[in-house]
């Protein structure tokens, strides 16, 4: 109940099966924005596997009850209340009919049934269905649904719901009706309804079994030209799931609908996926390469849920990672295969680096804060707060470890057994683990700790080389570092950690690996299974002292502690055959230098950068044997939030000063190289959203961004103006505008201001592009003389800005609070006061969005004393004024 501040703690240990089951549901909707009439007819029976109950308790929120009937007769023994509907004196099996009214036009929470741009949409995960009708709104109650929708035909010509369309008819008074049937049992969180003035791009395909399927992407008419990439991504996802996992589309049709007002990225409702427009709409003029890649990934993710989430769903919300972690892993593998196929390791590594970079910056920070929780949480106050990086991204890493342990074939065997055992059921993370274990003949009892322990493990590595015996010993010890209290409380013992390692010789080549006791060497990368607090693994026949390449391909979500020298890191950056670890070496080298510089900046000491670091970056920049996409990733410095997280006391101003110094130093020292790379990687001709073309654009635009850091950025301004004027795609146009904004920090802002005005005029009818316009201004570099918070406050008064649209709020407010740390953490606390204002304002409109913004200060205790006190004051102010339990759970945990 997101609109109350009740703080009841729900615990996994208290789970009990539902006292009643609902076998089938027939829903009838008479759609009117102000008052929508809903009739629900359910076949209900007592659950033989649950304790008997004297009454039926249904959940309901913001509903007006009209009538209750059992087996066709009015049933007066009922009472509606704040939390739902209680029905007394019910038989063992019966037909329950409930008539009620909801008010979609007033629903600013965007949970349940609501109106956006004059159309009707739903969002029911996690607990939105109870805002539509009274129901057992929990994932372990699975029912078949028949849905009849009636509405004014002129206002709402398209009527959609889950499953297959079985009937359509015209009604008197200009109304019409559509009846939909979903033959597969599903929990209520997967229910969907859409009605409005929409058009569709359609394709018919044949699945691997020869069945014809209808695919539709529904959008508002003016967006139809931006649907081709989403459709192509859907077709690719369908074929990939057939080939990789043998899973076929089961319904006659599959629909995607785009809506601009949406709290999440997308939702996997059975057969009727509802998406934020951000993850559907794309053409070269409006979408960047990143947008194209994200659309492919999210379309794939939601389609893959059809099996991992829909056909097999969660028993309870504590098992959320059962569907989300598994499906994130599947979409990551899909994107990697689309980018590099199953065999192109270098191309796949680019995707792996992108995913790990997000995990480290966001999930590792979550593990160190007050919201730290296991992949399978033990308790929550508001389930919407647990759609977290831990559940999704760390959950995906846990699934990936199964594949690392068993290989692709072993993982597929486990997936096959999982579906054979549990198709059509609501199950647990343990059920998935047991299927993987049984399919591969392994005892995975210890592996369960990955689901129940919070925090990020640390692996300390010690090595010793015995030249006489030609033996190389690697000792691994696992522990948890400075974990949050929530993490320390869940730790139960050592984990089973797959730790991939390689050994590199003096010539830069991988050495063959033979562990003590093995008859012969096998390969150049070995996955060691660390199961104890400390273990030593000894390699034999090692002819020379090697350099270890540790945790190849990031084989487990851990922090590795090994004291490489700068020279060793530079050697790995130049030679490691594992592309991920090559990138990792550069990031370690940069992080070490940046943290040292930040300490000097905080002490007002002069800054300098060793020439060897510049030389290491120069080698990557000029190495044409490396792909442009990899070079771009390798040349991007660690982010300011990540660097601040590595400090004993985070000092955003010092980190920003250090990072800007290094960027300027690299720009100055390598100016000619950046100019050459810019010229070499231009992509003339028509725009192509391929990974190869995107890699060239990415490296070229990175070169432009570095050139904009020069004390004299005239080259960057000249190139950026020309690129902006001639761009035939949003990637290049947005990169040019960003470069002009960066250059304006040291030069006249005339070119940047002119480009900003032009950008707005060009795209004022494209909401997603205007989101970029807001975000670029919110994240631009500022100074004490030119604080960006003033720009953000001014933009909040812009006619195009509204707090009611989550995308618009995220583009300006979230971008400033989370994406511009040096300005947000201003010493005067103005950023925190602004944050508090916006959390309180959003809380009154949309608690889910407000709670996500509230998390911007959850790590406040890790900052310098002066900042800490100002953050505490802002948190206390929000705690005193927040009305939803969504926000209260976040700020109360932060303050506890």
TrEMBL record:
Residues 567-896 form the Peptidase M1 alanyl aminopeptidase C-terminal domain. One of its GO terms (molecular function) is metallopeptidase activity. Its cofactor is Zn(2+). Its EC number is 3.4.11.2. Residues 455-563 form the Peptidase M1 alanyl aminopeptidase Ig-like fold domain. CDD domains: M1_APN. Keywords: Aminopeptidase, Hydrolase, Metal-binding, Metalloprotease, Protease, Zinc. GO terms for biological process: proteolysis. Residues 230-450 form the Peptidase M1 membrane alanine aminopeptidase domain. Residues 107-190 form the Aminopeptidase N-like N-terminal domain. It catalyses: Release of an N-terminal amino acid, Xaa-|-Yaa- from a peptide, amide or arylamide. Xaa is preferably Ala, but may be most amino acids including Pro (slow action). When a terminal hydrophobic residue is followed by a prolyl residue, the two may be released as an intact Xaa-Pro dipeptide. NCBIfam families: pepN_proteo. Aminopeptidase N is involved in the degradation of intracellular peptides generated by protein breakdown during normal growth as well as in response to nutrient starvation. Belongs to the peptidase M1 family. This is Aminopeptidase N.
